[in-house]
User: Fold this.
Amino acid sequence: MPAGRFPYEYFKDPHIQKPIEQIYQDINGYTWETTDDDSELWHGESFIQVVLPPLQMDGLCVKGIFYSNAVDVILRRYPWLSDLFHTIGSSMFSSYSWSRKADVLFSVYNNPHRDNWFRNQEPARHHQLLFPLLDSDFLNELTFCPLNVAEKDIDVLCISRLNPDKNLEVVAKAIQILNKKYNASVRMTLITGQKMDLNLQYIRPNEREEFYKIESAVEHFRDYIDVVLDRIFDPTELARYYSRAKVCVLGSLLEGRNRCIREAISCNTPVVCFKQLNQYARGDQPELPDGAAMYAPEFDAEILADTLYEALNHRDSFHPRKAFLRHFGRKTFLNQCLNLIPHYREVLPDFSEYDNYSNDWLNMAIYQQYEKSFHDLLYDKQVELTYAKGMNNIEAFAENFGYKFGILKKEVKPILR
Assistant:
């Protein structure tokens, strides 16, 4: 699934001494996309996420939009999807998507200098639009929302895989420093996304190695850190953890736009991370909007401890959910897509630069075509139409749309009933 070289030297060094163009090259030399047609390589990890389905009404055809980490492979196998959808390539990282067939590429951040570098590096791809978002910006703000909890009984929440780029040993050390320096009783809850037991039998050797790093970084590890041993799939259960937390923390310096920090702020929980997170890809653009986060100014466990202590003691100064809804969420993402792609401004009746979610033609066409409201499709009330993951599901997705719009000629049962 991954391709290229992961820039390991960036994981723990926020002061890379290279020309910025070389840094761009290093970051863009890695992707988490499906680039090979071998079905074994994309059986479980490849996905399609629909932002808008294709529509026909009153003789007018409006193409849909989907993004994927496997656009080129999918369009090679199911070329008719390009007649029905505008496609957006996602690298699942802070690199530009490697897709050559996508109409649009996630560029992750609005960094004009980096965009110009990319255009100069890839002159054959000038036709592809650049979109300064990632799939984390399509987060469902109705699923990840503040839940009523009896109390904020988690001091610091960390949701992070056991990977070296997450710098979990630095985060764990910061929790210990915070408690000793400020004579506090702060605990951190760690959710790794893996099923674990106390003997670490269920995790891979590299994950076990990362866990040992955390344990060795902290004296009396279990005095400070609670590890959730189950793998949590239910978004509502995750939202409950976020809602219980006073602060969410992330230790990375380099990755994609991290989903957990957007899930946290959507659940009205402030985030603490390093100021240098994705600093080279971002340029001058902040990682998170004002009121949603507090940044540790240097990559250092004690400085992170000081920042966490300050955030915990000034929680009333944050307004994360308000900041999230102003900048992110599905309706915002949809509108940005329609603004970016010229097709919609040209053909969509009553196109609005500010609110196409309320467009009467779109709402009527979606209901007529799919017998579902626009709201229900946008917020995943009919998953078969809006999301597909893995080879078999993507194949069924492509064929269903091919049959529905008459591109494939065969009798099949309707998509929606």
In short: Residues 168-181 form the longest helix (14 residues).
